[in-house]
Amino acid sequence: MEFVDKDPTLENYWRSIILFGSNTASYKFALAHALYDVATIDNDLITLENLAVPFASRICQHLKDAPKQGTSPTSKFLDSCSQFNSGQKDRGELISDTLKYGFKNVVDAFHVVNRKPVARRFFIDERKTNKGIRITDNFFELSGCSQYQSFEFETEARWRLVEEAWTSGVGKNVVDINYDQKLKQLFTSRNDQRVNVTSCRSALNGYQKGRCFYCYKGISITPGNTDLADVDHFIPFVAQHNVEGVNGVWNLVLSCYDCNRGVGGKFAQIPSIKLLQRLYKRNEYFISSHLPLRETLIRQTGGAELERKRYLQTQYDRARSVLLHTWEPEAQAGDLF
Asked: What is the pTM of this model?
């Protein structure tokens, strides 16, 4: 995948699993969260019994808001989690069922992206020999990287987006993800009611590899951080009367403060044609990550690659005819996406 090949860091191998791995159930996201919770350098072997508590807890919590946690019509594990939530099963029974059913497929499938395992593994399956999984040095190195704190937000955002697609019934209904400019929130409509899905920053950050879209400077999505990313309209919002869907997900990027609002920042200028090509590539990452961003982008910009390129170019030309001035900052790193 170009996403990893262009910048083959451990962070991007991990992100490829979270963003682009196939999703027939939400177990992969729950396992990622469980690893954030329990993996420590003091003991690289995590027994399934120790993993079961945080794994099942995450599933149970999500089931309270989204009863649909997979594409299969039946699941003994999800049934057990629902029964625990309703008081029909106690914690001991939940953990017993998690050990029986919860890890059946997710351990094998976790590292698989586009039907092949990624080149860097973050744990090794030792269920047969040691009744657990063994964390690799890759994960411990990952946990020390500057972007590690963002992974939990990104994983949760991806989980929320996928379960919203399942809940709404992709295939029968088209899920359209919209943007609330004031709240910096992605939302959709279900049964004629608004449903807030996730933070826009958390949803977009992984696709930009934790970097400013324009200059590649590192950014943060942690509230209160001094490097907190701005959510920016690639084609400036002031062009809204000339551009279709300026508030669409296709036109949203994360920017550092300097590029968006600092001295010499973009403001109401239109980014260069080189940056337009980068936007197209970023949007194709959305397409590759499947539901519901894929469906949203196709609905907004077109079903075929050429159609999407033409759409972006048309909106760009319309904006440039009124904004006139182009802008491009000095890059802080080599071409990363």
From this structure: 0.95
User: CA-CA distances (angstroms) from residue 117 to 13, 17, 39, 287?
Assistant: 10, 9, 21, 20
DSSP letter for each residue of 184-231: TEEEEEETTEEEEEEEHHHHHHGGGTTB-TTT--B-B-STT-TTBPEE
**Regarding predicted confidence, which is higher, 93 or 175?**
93
Structure-token match 């946990």, residue found: 143
Angle at which helices 148-168 and 27-38 pack, to 10 degrees? 160
User: pLDDT tens, 253-292?
Assistant: 999 999 999 999 999 999 999 999 999 999 999 999 988 9
H helices present in the chain, as ranges: 2-5, 10-20, 27-38, 48-65, 76-85, 91-97, 106-109, 127-130, 137-143, 148-168, 200-205, 257-261, 273-288, 293-301, 305-323
Paired residues of 179 in beta bridges: 186
Question: CB 172: neighbour CB atoms within 10 A?
Answer: 6
Mean pLDDT is lowest, of 9-18, 41-50, 206-215, 299-308, for 41-50
Q: How far apart are CA 318 and CA 243, in angstroms?
A: 6
Q: Name the residue among 267, 213, 264 with its Cα closest to residue 237.
A: 267
Residues in a beta bridge with 270 = 326
For residue 330, what are the contacts with CB-CB under 8 A and spacing of at least 6?
215
Give the long-range contacts of residues 181-184, CB within 8 A, separation 24 or more. 181/237, 181/247, 184/231
With bands split at pLDDT 50, 70 and 90, how would you rate the model's confidence at 172?
very low
Give the pair of three-digit tokens for residue 280.
Answer: 């197209």
